[in-house]
Structures are given as structure tokens and as C-alpha cells.
């Protein structure tokens, strides 16, 4: 059974067909299909267009802005959409959806046009249409079409995607368009717009009012994508210039116009100037007659005697819980953490335990029962010892006297002990032979020792009278005539270079 109900040209049926024409095409990429879905999903019947900003398409698809721009341009060139009104500032771009590309074609042969007189059917057999009955009768209340979706149409989450739902509709892309920009997208120019206010580079240059890098700025202006609304760019430039001038600082930094265009700052809100935060005023002094509220006094220390103490373990936490009773019979309970998963908490508990043990007059404890009957002073920050400890306090445990270590017995030195010591010495590996450097150094020490001995044996050669030069050691040896006897004994393998060095040392001395 077929239904005779006709679908509106922009109904869900044709929206689905338009999306199918993109997904089934051979030129569409995966990004093209995602963007086509977002644009069709944002279609509103009451406006007759779909609105989506580049920033929204970036967020919805997760693609970079250059890729989004290229994909939108490809979709517009292949026919499913066209730019009805270029967005700018806080206004999203409006897209016209071409449902005529997926509309159902009329049935019949060529030239089979119906007339009022001949019913439809064969050639020239068109049914009679009465002017009293409309062609498309409404099926019910306006806007009361049932749908299986949770919201009407493909408008799920639409309000979050639209920036300015009250923006004006786009004029038809026929009359009222200026010269078509590079890439095939027309730049909107209203017929009543004066020629001197058209979106030209000179208008942008005057609006931004930052005379720096005009050549680079013109190149950046010419390189703008075709879908960019140049009139909106000029308006954004005016807003940025006004925001900069509002600071009142002529030397405040600014973006060069070329950099401003390349970074697409025209799609961002103009920054606001620095606003100094006002500091809170100091409180006014109170009148002299009005009393100032007194500060909270610390709690007085409590002198009490420990009556009960026990160590309790719950999970990974170990606590020392004790009760101390003061002279009035009031019990005061305290808890000290001994072990905890948090190192800082455990460290603080160990510090309080050390204070408690010291306040009780003990050096250390091995059992909580050692605290019973001990008098302590409890303060806000811990525990202290009383100035005078009561006589009825539990006496301190008596420590046993340390036992002296036994003195080892002394044995007389015997020949067997001496023989064993010599055997151990002989078992030691022999020392390596002297190196060349060690032999030279030993020979130098022997020469120096021989000089000192000879000087000590001949003091008369060192007593120099006034006006006489001091005799060298080599001259003194020659004067004695006992040069061979004066020299230190030399080994039989004394090298020849040693003699040369020895003579050089004598002459230097």
C-alpha cells in the first residue's frame, strides 16, 4: 500500500537523500561526509538555511581549520551546498542546501504536460485540477508532524551549535552580488552599498589604522579564502582598533595587519585592555568608646594521671588510646597515631608519643602498661612533665646493672706462636720489583743524603769571610783531593746518564 502524501522539498526524506548523494559520491572524503552531516543536521526550515561556523565544524569533526575550509570549499564546488551568507565575528556562516538536486523527477513521457481539459494518463492525458482545491493540502496542524526522533527533524543539540539564531536570512545568490572572488564564491555586496565602502584592502587598511607592513598585509588580504566575508573582516578590524585605542597607551603592542590576517584573528573577539584590580580597603578603626572583642585565650594546661592505656590496631592504622584523670575526677581521653599509611601523620604521632613518654618521666616504653599511674600535664600542643612529681606516682622500673664483659686470659708468648707468625708473614706474596722511576728517585735520595753527610763532616768549607764568594760543593770536593772518597757509594751498574745528571746537579748547586 503506497501513500499519496507528498513530502516537503526540505523534509527529512530529502535531507537524507542530500546526505546520501555526498556519501555515495566518488569525490567526497571522510571529512567531507562528516562536515556534510553537520551542515545538514543544522538545517532550519523556518529560516531555509543551515548555519555553522568554522569553529563549530572544527570542534564537531576534530579536524584542523585549513582542512575544514578545504572540505567546505569542495562541498560547495560539487553542488550539495553553497554559501548563502558568509559569517564573521560572532555570526556563523549560512549555507543554502540544494534539495533540487535530489528532488523526484516528474513521471510521464517528454512533452506529456497536463491541461485543465484533458485528464492525465497517456500523452496529453493530464488530470483536471480545480482552482478551488489547493494542490498541496495541509495534513494537520502546522508543525505537528509526528517523528520518531526525540526532537523535531535533525535539530538535536542545535541551540548549542548556533551562535546567533536571530541573524538575518541571506539574500538570493543572483542580483546584489559583487565580483566573484577566487575560488568561485561570491562576495556579498548590497545594491545600496556606496562604492567607497566596498570591502577593499584600502578600507581594511584605514579601519585597522596600523601603518606597518602594507605590502605584506595586501598579500595576506589577497590570500584570504574565498568563503571569508571580507566586509566582516573590516568590521572586526575596526573593533580591534577601537579596543586597542581604549587602552590610552600609544606604545601598547599590536599585531601587524599581515600577521592579524594570517592568524585569522578576525574570527576572534577583540581583546579587552588591562583592568587594574582594586585592592580591598583597609578596615576602619573602631571608635574609642566601643570595646574591641578580646582574643580567644588558650586553654589552661591540665594536670592528670594516666589511668588506662592500650594499643589498638585497625587495618593499617595503629593507635595508642589512653585516659587521664585530673584531681576533680574528670577523665580526658587522648589518641596518638603510632602507625599510618600517611608518613606525615605517622611522624606527627611519633613526635607526640616522645613528648608523652618524656612527660611521664620515662626514657622509653616497651608496653602501654608502663604509663599507668604516671602524672602528666596536657597542653594544646602536646604533653609536658609536671614541675614536681607527686610522691604517690608509680615508681620507675629498676633497670638491671650492666654485666661487665669477661676479660680474656693472657698467655705467654711461645716459640710456636712466633713460628706461626713468621709462617704467616712468609705466606704473603712478595712485593713487586721497583720501577725505573722508583730506582731513579732512590738514587737521587742517596745522593742528597751523601751531600748532607759530607757538608756536616767539612764545616770549614762553608765559613765564608766577608767579601769572598761562597764555594760550591763541587769546588770543595776538588780542593780536598778526595773526590772518590767524598762521593757516596755507587752500585756497580751505575748508568752513564746518572753521572751526567750528577755533574749537572753539582754545577747548578
Notes on the protein architecture:
With 509 residues, the protein is an alpha+beta fold. Helices cover 32% and strands 12% of the residues. The protein contains 15 helices and 11 strands. The chain has helices at 12-23, 30-41, 54-61, 65-77, 158-161, 201-208, 214-222, 230-245, 257-262, 343-359, 415-427, 436-457, 473-480, 483-486, 496-508, and strands at 43-44, 49-52, 81-85, 93-97, 177-180, 186-188, 302-314, 317-326, 331-339, 375-378, 383-384. A 5-stranded antiparallel β-sheet has the order 9-8-7-10-11, with helices on one face. α1 (12-23) packs antiparallel against α2. The longest helix is centred in the last third of the chain and has 22 residues, at 436-457. It is extended, with a radius of gyration of 54 Å. The termini are far apart. The model is unreliable at 108-196 (pLDDT under 50).
- The succession of helices and strands, N to C, reads HHEEHHEEHEEHHHHEEEHEEHHHHH
Largest sheet report: 5 strands, antiparallel
**Number of H- or I-type helical stretches:** 15
Q: Which ranges are low-confidence, i.e. pLDDT below 50, for 5 or more consecutive residues?
A: 108-196
In terms of DSSP E residues, the strand content is 5-15%
Average pLDDT figure: 74
| Quaternary structure state of the chains depicted | single chain
Give a topology summary.
Elements: H1 12-23, H2 30-41, E1 43-44, E2 49-52, H3 54-61, H4 65-77, E3 81-85, E4 93-97, H5 158-161, E5 177-180, E6 186-188, H6 201-208, H7 214-222, H8 230-245, H9 257-262, E7 302-314, E8 317-326, E9 331-339, H10 343-359, E10 375-378, E11 383-384, H11 415-427, H12 436-457, H13 473-480, H14 483-486, H15 496-508
Antiparallel strand pairs: 1-2, 2-4, 3-4, 5-6, 7-8, 7-10, 8-9, 10-11
